[in-house]
Amino acid sequence: PNGPYFWTPQGFDAKGAVEELRKQMRASPKSVFLVGLSVNPYPEFAEEHPNEVWIDKDGKPQYGRDCHLASDGFDSASKDPKAWKGISMMSPLWREGARKCIGELIAELKRTGLSKRIVGFHISGFHDGQFAPALYDYSVPARNGYRKFLERKYGRPFPDAVPPDYRRYGTYGSGKDFFAEASDRDLVDFQEYMHKAPFEVQDDLALHVKRCFGKDVIVVKWCMGAFGGARQSELDFTEFVNSKGIDILVARDVRTH
User: Whole-angstrom Cα distance, residue 56 to residue 135?
Assistant: First the structure.
């Protein structure tokens, strides 16, 4: 996630990406490789597609640098000259672009013959490379995804549903532990959506990798505090168990300082 970068406003530099990998292969000529693949969009993507920007309930954009979002609050890094607006991981335009980059990369690996030395990919992206929703997402793509999630869950359309105000959850670390079935149903649904949707995105990209490769390869993801239930953990374990694309989950304990 700290570069070099190969996806820019000019397109994806597949040859440059493969050349970088070739350098590593030359350094270890008898090795096979599990390739780390960051699918973060380039900074200008937000200016090109403003409706795909990750925003809070009040419309403030989420900012970040490299692979880290400003998890202490929306708009908090807007004065940082090296920060840029984050894209919603629910964005269909971003996912389309990421899939295109993956396809071009694998095609170039096959063309050069380097694909023979690759056993799999570790897909990373967004906050800390974990696809972790460090803050709640109220963007247009997230809102549309939430409505589709409700339709799948309850078997009927929810054309006017909007995500509930995150402030009803309470302050992070001292929020609500119990929810009322009637008055808090929307909070429960939105929390479930924010846990499951990022993993569904990763699973889709993993399946795309395997289709493009056309041979058995493994796909890995990582997360922190996977089973703690915190929003940053972002993982619904059932989604991993039922995954058709993700083969290995690398999880670690929540950081303690």
Answer: 8
Tokens of 2: 């700290």
Chain position carrying tokens 């939430």: 146
For 19-54, the pLDDT digits (tens) are 999 999 999 999 999 999 999 898 899 999 999 999
Contact 40, 1 (CB under 8 A): yes
Scan for tokens 């980059």, then name that residue: 101
Q: Which two tokens stand for residue 198?
A: 């990022």
Give SS3 for 76: coil
Q: How many CB atoms lie within 10 A of CB 254?
A: 12
pTM for the whole thing?
0.88
What is the C-alpha to C-alpha distance for residues 254 and 2, in angstroms, rounded to an integer?
23
Per-residue pLDDT reduced to its tens digit, 150-171: 999 999 999 999 999 887 876 5
Instruction: Provide the 3-class DSSP secondary structure of residue 186.
Output: helix
DSSP-derived pairing of the beta strands 7-8 and 11-12:
antiparallel
Alpha carbon distance 183, 199 (integer Å): 27
